[in-house]
Amino acid sequence: MPVQETTDPLNTPVAMLRGVGPERQAQLARLDLRTVGDLLLHRPRRYEDRRTFRKVRELALHETAATRGHIVAMGTKRYRRGSRSVFELIVEDETGRLHCRWWNLPFMEERFQVGQELVVFGRVRDLKPVTIDHPETEIIEGDEERSLHLHRLVPVHPATEGLTPRYLRWLVWQALERFGGAVVEPWGDAGIAGLPSRIDAIRALHFPGESGEEEQARKRLALDEFIGLQLGIQRRRRNLQSNAAGLPCSGDNRLMRPFLSRLPFKLTDAQTQVLRELRRDMGGAHPMRRLLQGDVGCGKTVVAACCAIMAVESGYEVAYMTPTEVLARQQWQTLKSWFEPLGIPVHLRTGSLKTEPADDTPTEALRGGGLPAVTVGTHALIESGFAPPRLGLVIIDEQHKFGVVQREALVRKGRYPHLLVMTATPIPRTLGLTLYGDLDVSVIDALPAERGRITTHVRTEASLPKVWEFVRSEAAAGRQAYVVYPRVEEADLQTGLKAVLQEHARLEQTLSPHRVGLLHGRLDAVEKEAVMGAFRDRRLQVLVATSIIEVGLDVPNATVMVIENADRFGLAQLHQLRGRIGRGKGDSTCILVAGVRTQEARARLKVLAETQDGFRIAEADLQLRGPGELLGQSQSGLPPFRFGDLARDLKLVEQARGIAAQLLDQEETKRPGARCTPGR
Question: Which of 322, 243, 309, 242 is nearest to 282 (CA)?
Answer without folding.
Answer: 309
